[in-house]
Amino acid sequence: MALDDRTEQLAVKAAQGDRAALDELLRTIEPDVLRHCSRFLPCRQDAEEACQDALLQVARNIQRFEGRSRFSTWLHVVVANSARSTYRSLKRRSLEQAGELPQQRPDPRRTSVIAGSRVDILDAMEELEARKPDLIQALVLRDVSQLEYAEIAEQLQLPLGTVKSRIHEARKQVRQTLGESYT
């Protein structure tokens, strides 16, 4: 999510309390936020829900943006966390409803292979987060948000070598969880 200099300046003004800048910032970033949420969540409505949550988090927490790194880097973390939170919420609701509704198998003619793969990957990432929470953030920033290693190191305030090591280990753990079908 590479934002232009104008958007970065809006973020600085919004962090300083400028309400008009915040409103304009939210309108400007919404399409990019939705696009990134869609990388996590296969269903459009789920991605829209995560997008709205991310925008709300930006509005509520913009004063925490200190301007030490680029706003786009800060925003990646907010979006990734929001999408993962929405996924966990949807999964929890689905499990709660499973007891109330008859078990339905998805129709393979109407289910996207890509969407099914994303759900498997999200499940593997959720499992990794439960087992090794220090690995997940670097993995999400690199493989989902597609940040450069140096940006991740800056955002997480870790040495570059540590970031690379965490990403390598996280990928290895996710591959093990997914099994042979994903190698």
What does this structure look like?
By secondary structure, the protein is mainly α. The chain contains eight helices and no strands. Belongs to the sigma-70 factor family. ECF subfamily. Residues 137-173 form the RNA polymerase sigma factor 70 region 4 type domain. This is RNA polymerase sigma factor. Keywords: DNA-binding, Sigma factor, Transcription, Transcription regulation.
The rough form would be described as globular
- Tell me the number of strands: 0
Spell out the helices and strands N to C.
HHHHHHHH
State the end-to-end CA separation.
28 Å
| Unreliably modeled segments | 101-117
Percentage of residues in DSSP E strands: under 5%
Question: How many helices?
Answer: 8
The helical percent reads over 70%
